Amino acid sequence: MRRIKGIYLKDKLSSSFCNYCCLAEDENLLLETENFYVVPTIGGFVEGYLLLISKEHLGSLAEIKKSQIEEFENLKKKCKKILIKIYDGCIFYEHGRTGMSVNHAHMHAVPVNIDFLGDLSVLFGTYIKVNQWNDVVKLSISHPHYLYYENCIKNNKYFFPVKKIESQFFRRILAEKLHLPEGVYDWRKYPFFDNARKTVKKIKELKI
């Protein structure tokens, strides 16, 4: 994996930003394992907003190898612990192979304590409650287009089979839930570099 400097905390978007195959080697890199890494997101309209990214170029995180599932689950648990300790909340979500604005497998970790099950049920209807990531891997074989949502406070995990969703779909409904100004969910227009810097500072101070 190629490593480059400064793709996240500069005051302008780098042309390399969309290439998640490039791993930041500076202070932006918060956590790293053999097959995954964690950075603050561009467009984090709340401080503490993280991305868990596969080092391998995959269409969704349901495509990771069976041997990587435990590693991924442990990284999720570490992110959850960090966000709840600092910000008192955490949800995870992933768009699967649909609705991604960056076509490289990544999961969002957002430090909020909001339940979206009702909203998602109204929009998509059917959902399947899952217990572990291996359940998502198995379900994705017949449902490659899905939305994964996890409420960490309640410790509930849901798999929604979907046909197609718009780019940045969950970011939009999250911003609406938080009563943020219209359009602020779009990371290309509102990169929120200051929030990324604050996120790095707070997490580094935790001495993880």
Number of domains: 1
CATH class: Alpha Beta
Low-confidence stretches: none
Sum up the overall morphology in one term: globular
- Strand arrangement within the widest β-sheet reads 3-4-5-7-6-9-10-8
Q: What is the rounded distance between the termini?
A: 24 Å
CATH architecture: 2-Layer Sandwich
For the residues shown, what is the average pLDDT? 87
CATH superfamily: HIT-like
Computed over alpha carbons, the radius of gyration is 16 Å
- Secondary-structure element series: EEEEEHEEHEHEEHH
Q: How is the main sheet built? A: 8 strands, antiparallel
CATH fold naming: HIT family, subunit A
- β content, as a range? 15-25%
Beta strand count: 10
SS element count, helices: 5
Q: In percent, how helical is the residue content?
A: 25-40%
Helix-and-strand structural type: alpha+beta
List the helices and strands and how they pair.
Blueprint: E1 3-4, E2 23-24, E3 31-32, E4 36-40, E5 50-54, H1 69-87, E6 91-94, E7 106-110, H2 117-124, E8 128-130, H3 133-142, E9 146-151, E10 156-161, H4 169-177, H5 193-205
Parallel strand pairs: 1-2
Antiparallel strand pairs: 3-4, 4-5, 5-7, 6-7, 6-9, 8-10, 9-10
